[in-house]
Amino acid sequence: MNTQEMMKVALNLAKLEEIPVDSGIYCEGENIKKVLMGIDMGTPELLLARELKYDCVVSHHGSQDDKFINVDIILDTQIETMVKHGVPINKAQKALSKIKKTMKLNFHGINSDRASSVARLINMPYFNMHQIADLLTERFVQNYIDDKVKNKTNVTLKDIIKILNEIYEYQNGYVKPFIAVGKEDSFAGKNVVTMAGGTDGGIDVSKAYFEAGVGTLICMHMDEKELDQIESHNVGNVIIAGHMPSDSIGMNIIAKEWEKAGIKVTKISGMV
Predict the structure, then answer these.
(1) In the 8-state DSSP scheme, what is residue 156?
(2) Whole-angstrom Cα distance, residue 34 to residue 57?
(3) Which of 24, 168, 206, 237 lies at 20 to 30 Å from 3 by C-alpha?
(4) Segment (H or E) for 171
């Protein structure tokens, strides 16, 4: 396979027609048989791959090209998820406005060509899949939980933690899912998995979900300030599933498809 074909496999799995702005191919390659894959793959890993005779490096984070300056627009993809779970579309859009501004400012000053310039210099095929893999994770975890709790009443946060720990990546990750807001015996109510769309949407997004009747948000990560605000409002629960194991779920789904096509995938740098 070549890099374009590998990316196409990933896009098809995520049901996307084009590469999102936070993902991309930065150095093309052909006849790829050995891939070094990880959550964060930069210059050291590119050089390691060359030393160990790999054909390609694939990262989850770290898209680097001229479209990345507009990465804040990836947050708009959260609107569909919010609306699906009862948030009015106008409210969803407004809730994301503050984090969109912050994200655009944060990424404006990054050295966006750092690793990709090295890949091109040493001619090491290199690409990343951020939103692509996160969508796969979000859908997988949501479907897994929904299947386990259907036809059950009074599901608690302890029950949700037990369900998450049945998933391979959470079983074997260095960090484990935990209750960040709420208690083990707190009723979960309506569960919503929010793991795609660039990053955590912030307190305005969390409030919008809870005001729409969501009982528990299940996310990869959330900062302490937002958790404190949610706890002070006393209207919903938060479970943090873990960043690296959650990222690994989507990446592993893609890797399995590549392996079916005969590619050998070695996982490092946070992959579970």
Answers:
(1) B
(2) 9
(3) 168
(4) helix 168-172
In one-letter notation, the amino acid at residue 211 is E
Sheet holding 56-59, edge to edge: 24-27, 126-128, 56-59, 34-38, 264-268
Asked whether the beta carbons of 57 and 126 are under 8 A apart, the reply is: yes
Count of C-beta atoms within a 10 Å radius of residue 129: 30
* Residue pair 63/86 in contact by the 8 Å Cβ criterion: no
Task: Name the packing angle between helices 131-149 and 157-164 (round to 10°).
Answer: 120
In DSSP terms, 24 is beta-bridged to: 128
Q: How far apart are CA 129 and CA 250, in angstroms?
A: 10
Q: Please, what are the domains in the chain?
A: 3-129+247-267 (3.40.1390), 136-244 (3.40.1390.30)
- Please choose, from the candidates 34, 39, 35, the residue with its C-alpha nearest in 3D space to the C-alpha of residue 62: 39
**8 Å CB contact between 208 and 138:** no
**What pLDDT, in 10s, does the model give residues 195-229?**
998 888 889 999 999 999 999 999 999 999 999 99
Cα–Cα distance list, 67 to 22, 24, 71, 112, 150 (Å): 8, 9, 7, 10, 41
Record the tokens describing residue 119, joined without a space: 């890949």
Q: Among 157, 145, 181, 176, which Cα is nearest to 246's?
A: 176
Q: What is the pLDDT of residues 173-187, one digit of tens each?
A: 999 999 999 999 999
Q: Taking the CB of residue 18, how many other CB atoms lie within 10 A of it?
A: 7
pLDDT tens digits along 116-145: 999 999 999 999 999 999 999 999 999 999
- As a whole number of angstroms, the distance between CA 213 and CA 201 comes to 17
CA angle 236, 237, 238 (to 5 degrees): 135
